[in-house]
Specification:
The chain is α/β, with parallel strands linked by helices and about 375 residues long. The chain has 11 helices and 17 strands. The chain is globular.
Amino acid sequence: MPKTGGEARQFYPVILAGGSGERFWPLSRKSKPKQFLSLDDSGLSLIQATVQRLTGIPGVEVEDILIVTGVDHRMQVLEHLPELPTENLLVEPVARDTAAAVLYAALKVAQMDPGGLMGVFHSDHRVDQPEVFAQVVQQATALAAARDVLVTIGIEATYPSVAYGYIERGETLETEAGQLGAALPAYRVARFTEKPDNARAQEFLATGRYSWNSGMFIWKVQTILAAYERYQPELYAALSTAMTVRGGVRRVYPTLQKISIDYAILEKADNVAVIPAEFGWDDLGDWNALERLLRGQGENVAVGRHVGIDTEGAILYTTNGDDLIATIGLDDVVVVRTNEVTLVVHKDRTQDIKKLVQQLKDNPDLERYV
């Protein structure tokens, strides 16, 4: 519920749960995308773990959380999160990327509490140190409350990844530690760079000035709405008007531009800040993440039964405990066996799974496997 009077601004975390998780195909399917899967031994789906992590932040209750999802996944969200108030579920009639989703949520928060703070988080990320994560979010909310800045949470780059976007740090912003002890430094963002090639990623890492773009953002709701009015006036006008008319979102949403929040707002704005942090973050973007998630002592990572000869660096996954994956003479491959699909892909080609899924979508005889 909104806080009033002399109390601190209320914080409303928004979870984006509209993704299809295609790079985790064939485990992630149209009927059950990645955010509803459990990939570790916690028993929690990724979206459940996300809510648990956010409610671990002091002052955040389930009633403060909003979730943006697609029309096909509305019931699954409610099944996984029965404690979520139904009015906190924002359903997109069609997917229009993150700029539209974030604006939809920001307009809803503004209706609930015009003076509120808003955070943007993804439903399919993993965090190994939730206590540190909570402290970083608290610092980011304090910075966003004190200044009209769009705060991004960067992840300290530890190797030259080509799978993430990068944020270059500019001048230092003074921040107050508050109750968190020694605060992490915050910086103005000098520039965003989309996924680089390996050579450029090596250069970024060597400078010590770059963080990975986690896709987590915190701001005053009025600050982000002002940015939309300035940088995306057509998108802002269309959706803000639609939300005042019964059935307006359903009619207008399909006409909205499909663009990410990074391209639409953050790369254009001159009031973006970054707090680089490390709390065991992973975006679980494709099957290679399973190796990071389930590190073991052996040469391979296997979920289910596997027997191999001369097989090294493999990721092997079966959904049926009675099935067996047998390999001979394979290095650095991913093998996934589900009830009706078997995927075999080299570990450095997992990003191409999306292309394969698109081929299936384009073939009426194979579309049922998506």
